[in-house]
Amino acid sequence: MFHGHTISLWVEFEDNPGVAEVELALNGEYMDVRSGDQEPPNIVGVVGQEEVAVGAVTLDRNYPQACWIWAVSDNLRLSASNSMAVARQLL
Fold first, then answer.
1. What is the pLDDT along the chain (91 residues), one digit of tens a residue?
2. Is 74 helix (H, G, I), strand (E, B) or coil?
3. CA dihedral sign of residues 64, 66, 72, 73
4. Distance (Å, whole) CA 76 – CA 84
5. How many secondary structure helices (H) and strands (E) does the chain include?
6. Structure pTM?
7. How many CB atoms lie within 10 A of CB 37?
8. Gyration radius of the chain over CA positions
């Protein structure tokens, strides 16, 4: 059995920056951004991964000021990593 979190986000912008800019803004130390040429993340694919995997960023066809973002994480690994980071800061 696999555990994880998945979320489909609909994000509205004042001025939509486009898919490439959204992916660039999300890319960072704790985010694994998978661009359009890569397979979107899934629960099985992120098992044991500490980062939140983001993929399938697409513009909304019906509302040009918005885009859809798909994000997936291993909830057990992410919780453990966050707990360790908090403990390190407290010590």
1. 467 888 999 999 999 889 999 999 999 888 889 887 888 888 888 888 888 899 889 999 999 899 999 999 888 777 777 688 788 889 8
2. coil
3. positive
4. 12
5. 2, 4
6. 0.77
7. 5
8. 15
